[in-house]
Amino acid sequence: MKPKRISDPLKLNNLNVMRTIVYLFAAVSILLLTAAAGDKPAYRVFNEKGKSSDYKDILKAASDADIIFFGELHDNALCHWLELELTRDLYDVKKERLVIGAEMFEADNQLLLNEYTGKFIRKKDFEAEAKLWPNYKTDYAPLVDFACGKGIRFVATNIPRRYAAAVNLKGFQALDSINAYQRAMIAPLPIKYDSTLNCYASIAKAAEGGPGHSMHLGEAQAIKDATMAHFILKNWETGKSFLHFNGSYHSDDHAGIVWYVQNYGKRLPYIPKVITITCVEQDTLDELSSENTGKADFIICIPASMTKTR
Description:
By secondary structure, the protein is of the alpha/beta class.
């Protein structure tokens, strides 16, 4: 049976328009799919189970948390960009209820941080006198300057490196003779220490037999983690959000600083809600490798070829 011919010009025109729309839609869909297949994403977000997630999920979880740990790769440019973006977006939600802290600043630099973020001293004076990491100007100055501009408290959470070095040399007993002024820059002594935690056992094992090997390396890492946890909780209170930046090693697997926060938090009327974010590098971003799955509540997967900052 022959198809019925459409003699009405208006109907014929409408049919041609509909066909054109369908063809255009199909062509655009093919182009979009092709473009997506050829994309080079700068990063992908996964949840702790390795399922696909996104930045909006991170921001929502961070907005609902009391303490947020952002575990960075110190020399990864994209990590530092995301840290600044999360800080800005979290500030939009929390305003004056946001507190920032970082491993990259030691407790004996707190006064300088207060003076700079409080606009009492000039930027050049702060940078001249503070103990700053080599990549400070590219990676951490944007965070400090943002805090300065918004009046956000910025906490120097880390132990002065000379004390950590003393523990690395002699163990926790190296701190037995320090005075009250020195103790104020360290977590309360004695430090609870679990040498079986993978973060300490693995670093001690990796250092065995190496140059300058110390049998107290795990303790030196623990005193850093305990001190950071101490100053985080000291500067956090119910209703506020504390955003902390540290090397991923210090918060991966909910160990390190997180372990100490959870232990110290038992003494508080309200145990803070914690979320962890970590950054990892992989050759491909198609899926999260088994070794990176479960490292944190959110895993930011970045190409191994990403630009390094130092």
